[in-house]
Structures are given as structure tokens and as C-alpha cells.
Fold:
Amino acid sequence: MDNFNKLLQVNSVLIVCGILFRGICSLVNLNSVNKPVYYSDTEREKTWVASTEESVTVVGVISYFKDTTTNANLSVFLVGKGFGSSDSSKLISTWLLQEHGEMDVFENMVEASTVQASAFVHRYHHDFRYTFKNNGYIYLLFSHTASTRHSRKITFIARLSKNDHHYYSYTELQLNCTINTEQQENTFNKVQAAYLAKPGKVLAQNIVPSNLNDKVLFGVFSADEEDGRSALCMYPLSSINARFEEVIESCYTGEVLEDDKPKTVYSPYNSKNEAICRTKRDKNMVKAYICGAEFLPSPLASKPEYALAVKLIYTGNDMLTAVAVAVENEHTVAFLGTSGADVLKVHLDPNHTDFYNRIPGQRTGGAVNKNLLFDTGLDHLYITTGRKISKVPVQVCGPKNDCRSCLIQQDPYCGWCVREGRCTRKKNCNKGEGENVWLWGPDQACKILEPINFQACIAVDQTPPNGMSTPLWTINR
Structure:
């Protein structure tokens, strides 16, 4: 039986989780994946991390767990996993990445039953797509069905404190990617992939609220209809956190409706919702208890009317399946994988977002997988499909042999290097930071080099300076 990879993560070693033996994981040497660092198939249920089913999605992020008994800082692996027919009912779990006392590698660290699917198997078909950590919190992005009566998926981002050993701080916030935010529509309801990045200055200055240091969650979403519609939306992380605090504070301070039901939230894995927010507490409890507490209501999820809704920034004819974002010369470029195995390059210009290039893929390889990755120098992109990994450069400037053809493509990576007479990246152009040395964009006209007529401009001394016998050059429009 093939061991279908469910999860690959890089720590000091490579973490590999497959479908064999109920989804166990192993540690392998980064320099030679044939050399296992740790592998055991005898620990049974306590090391079943992933899933036996290929269709069940799994995401994971490396974090740390402080043992309150020994004060040791332990390396752990937090996992979000959909529910398979033979899987544990836990939707999120924390696994040890080192031996500690009597505990083995990949042993479950948290026995909390806060976030489980068991009682709601037919209601919650979680499809996990992305996870990341930032500023003391861990975030998981997924979609699931809204109710037993509806098959339509709704997208949520969940947040919990990385120091929360019981998942008391676990809260879900609905994300809407739509054409019209004023009508509270949710046009593109199912997240396919996401990427966290700090945008370039040109885009960041036009995000509301504007914060040049704020990270942004870029996500590609699809519609339920079978027409292949999809879109790219972006959510500033500061806006996500502000909405989290708004709905949590509302519950902690006892804001309820006339029927005593919570105003902004509900309990997603508990059928008893009426009484969870009736106790009035100080609003500072949100910041005082960032890890939550046993006496505070949890888990929580925002009601649809408190979803964070944004207007799409790009849509096209391709079904989008993956996204990665890079910054070049303060411009933001999105690389969008498609169901047809291609990758689209889109310039996220605040005035006019524009698709400008397509990296072709092999149609036999299937759709681009949700994880697009850059190399450490941000010079190449790794594209994965069902059975293939491709490494491609982020730009192909070289074939453009003249200034006009170089600039007309409006690729933030490619400009005309005047001194060298070639189309190239700014960092590869000699003295490219100088004025009119590296040309780019619709506002810059091509410039040509013309010789100076010394007979016309030198009146006293007819000899070129320093005894030069060849004409100097100057730049004219």
C-alpha cells in the first residue's frame, strides 16, 4: 500500500505524516530523506496524527509547549484535521516532537475535548487548508458545512493562544469573500488555499486601515456552483484580530438578545448555546485571559452577521487552487495556482489589479496543490501537483530584447537596464538604484542613448576632455 503523504513540515528535521497505520508520522534527515531520524509503528493510538483517508485534509504548524511541572520548553506540532471514518474525533491536537520523561515522540500532549467532531459528524465536514502562527497566536483556516440541512461550505479562521494547553481560547471567525460587502453576500464561500505575507508599500498604503507593518492573509476562494468561479481576497491580520476581540468581548461582557441568546457568537461544538454568554464580566477579561480559562465560555464562533467580509481583488476564468505572494520593488505580486496546472502571475496594483503572465504546467499532472513555496532567496517558486514538483524562476525577463517589449508587460520583476541594454531585475542591473538607470512601469518612457556633438557644445577647447577620441553618451527621451 502506498503511503500517501498527508503532511510535510520542516523543523530541524523533516516531519512526514502519511496514511499508513492510522496516520503515523516520522522524522527524517533533511540532507537525506532516506535516513530516518525517528520512526515507530508500535505506539498505536497515542501516535495517530494524520488520517487513513486521502480525502481528509490535514494542516500543521511547529510551536512550543511549556511544561508547567518541569518548566521545560518543548517542541510540539499543532495539527488541524478533518474527520475520517476511522479517525479520532479531535479536530485539533498537539503532538510532542521530542522525547520527554516517559512520553514518546509524536505522543498527544493535550487531552482536552473542547474541539471535537464526534457528536456532529454529519454537520461539520471540516476541510482544513492553511495554518500559521503570529504574535503569540496560532491560526487555522478551514471551511465546513453550515448545518445538517445545507451542504454549502462556509469559511472560518480559528485562533488560539500558543500557550493555551486546554484550547480554552479557541474561537472561530467567519470570513466572507464577496463581490458586494454592503449586502452581506458571501459569493465565494469556500477557501481553497491561503498565504500570509507583508504586502509591498504600494499596496499597503491603500489598505484600510493602513499599516505598513501589518501582515495580510491572502486567500483564494471558490463558489459552490459548478461554473469554476473563484476569486482572490485579502484580510489584514489587524482586522481579523480586531473582529476576534469584538465578538469575544461581547460574549464575556454578557451581551445577549431578547431571547437571552448571545448577540455575536454561538458555541460551535455544543448544542446548548443559550446560556454561554449570560454572565456579565469586565471587558478587560479579553486581554487579561488571552489563553481563556475554565470559567470562561468556550469554544466560540462568530455568527454570520459578524463575519469579516471583504471585496474580492481578483477574479478570472481559471479555477484557483493555490496562492503565494511576494514583493518586488515595493510592488506586490500574487502567484495563483489553477486546476489546469498553470500558475498565474497577478500584479496587485491598488488602482488596477492585473493578470500579466502565465507559467504553463503539464495538464496530465492535475491541479496545482494548495502549497506554493519560494526558495530562501525568493528567486524561484516550487509548484507541486499530484505527482510532480517543479522549480521555476519567479521571472523570465531575458527574452525581451528591447526596452518597449520589456516595459509593456508591466512585470514588477522586469525593467529595462539602460546601461546594459537588457531586460532584467533591478537588483541585477549595475547601479540600478540610480535615476533613469533601471526603467519600469507605464509612467516611464523608454530612453535611448545618443552621442554628444562636441563640435556644437564645446566653444573654447575643441578637444574632448581628457584626450578622449570617442564620443561621450547622454540619455535623451
